[in-house]
Specification:
The chain has 96 residues and is mostly helical. Helix content is 62%, strand content 0%. The protein has one domain. The protein has 5 helices and no strands. Helix 2 crosses helix 3 and helix 4 crosses helix 5. The protein starts with 10 loop residues before the first helix and ends with a helix.
Length: 96
C-alpha cells in the first residue's frame, strides 16, 4: 500500500508532459487574417499581404472585400480577386 516517493520531477520532464497548444492570435486583425487565409486558400507567399491588409484597414472594410470576393468570384482563384477588390475599394475611398 505504501508508494515510494521519488521526489520532485525534473523541470524538463514536466515540460515534456505538457501538451503544446498553438498560441492564439494576439490581435483581432490577426484572427481575421487567418480566417481569410483559410477561406480563400491563400498561398504561403501572399499570406503576409493579407496580414498587412487586415492590420491597416478597418474590420468592416476587410469583411466587405471578403464578402464581395465570395459573391463575385465564380471561377478562377478567389485570393487574386480579393486583392483586386481591396485595391479598388482603397482607390475609391481615398480622398484626393
Amino acid at each position: 500500500m505504501s508508494k515510494e516517493f521519488k521526489g520532485p520531477e525534473s523541470f524538463s520532464e514536466i515540460l515534456k508532459k505538457k501538451p503544446q497548444a498553438p498560441k492564439p492570435p494576439a490581435y483581432q486583425w490577426q484572427e481575421l487574417a487567418l480566417s481569410i487565409i483559410n477561406d480563400l486558400g491563400i498561398p504561403n507567399f501572399k499570406r503576409s499581404a493579407v496580414f498587412k491588409v487586415c492590420k491597416e484597414n478597418s474590420k468592416e472594410f476587410v469583411l466587405m472585400a471578403l464578402n464581395d470576393t465570395k459573391e463575385l468570384c465564380q471561377e478562377g482563384e478567389p485570393w487574386k480577386y480579393f486583392f483586386k477588390v481591396v485595391g479598388a475599394k482603397k482607390k475609391s475611398s481615398d480622398p484626393e
